[in-house]
Amino acid sequence: TTADLVELTHQILKMPELYAKIEQAGFYLSIDEAQDLGPEEHAIYDKFPARQKYIVGDPAQSVFRFQDQGNSLLNRFMKKPGVRIINLLENYRSFQPICTAAYQLIREHRPDLGVTQQMSMRTASDPSAPMVLSWRTRDLTDQMTYLIKLLRHYCQVGREYYWNQAALIYLEDSQGRQLEGLLRTGNI
User: Quick one: which of 82, 104, 110, 126 is 20 to 30 A from 24 by CA?
Assistant: First the structure.
């Protein structure tokens, strides 16, 4: 398991002879999705002997609650003297309306991240880019019910529904189960 791997790494780094061999080898350490590392992985990063350390991540994309206070490895690393930060502003996977909507939501709900309009990603969008909508609801059930109404509306052409033209994205398994139940109730 991941927990076993983390614990084994901690044990290895406590062994002076193995630590010395790792240090002598002159490894380079590279970490991706650094915004999602937990405290145990932070400790490994800090202790790991490496000639150079590289991390890649986006504080606005943290999916685990314990990183939300700006204490993540990524945030700590970005504040260290001598760190060179390279902002990647070209997005090759999403359309412009999606990136624009994401950054608007981040600016509204996470002002602590200091996201500016200049940091918003640019894409090679085309006129058929997917639409992005934003709305306020009372609670999660209200939000999902409204989402399903929109899904029905935008997937219907004439008398047929084109369900393969839509995607629902959610963060937690419980939301997926709730959405699935509402979709079944709506015969979708």
Answer: 82
Q: Which residues contact 140 (CB under 8 A, 6 or more apart)?
A: 175, 178
Q: How many angstroms separate the CA atoms of 144 and 30, rounded?
A: 39
Spatial contact of 64 and 38, defined as CB atoms under 8 Å apart:
yes
The predicted-structure confidence for 4-58, as pLDDT tens digits, reads as follows 888 898 898 899 998 888 888 888 888 888 888 877 888 888 888 888 888 888 8
Q: How does strand 52-55 pair with strand 28-31? A: parallel
**How wide is the angle at C-alpha 15 spanned by C-alphas 54 and 9, nearest 5°?**
45
**Amino acid letter, 24:** Q
Cα angle, residue 58 at apex, residues 53 and 59 outer, rounded to 5°: 105
| Single pTM value for the model | 0.55
User: Which SS3 state, helix, strand or coil, does residue 177 take?
Assistant: helix
Yes or no: say if 30 and 55 are a contact pair by the CB < 8 Å rule: yes
User: CA-CA distance, 49 to 19, in Å (whole number)?
Assistant: 8
Contact 168, 179 (CB under 8 A): yes
β-strand pairing of 160-161 with 156-157:
antiparallel
Could you give the CA distance from residue 55 to residue 32 in angstroms, rounded to a whole number?
Answer: 6
- Which residues lie closer than 8 Å to 124 by C-beta, 6 or more apart? 92
Ordered alpha helix ranges (H), the chain: 2-13, 16-25, 39-47, 73-79, 96-109, 140-155, 173-185
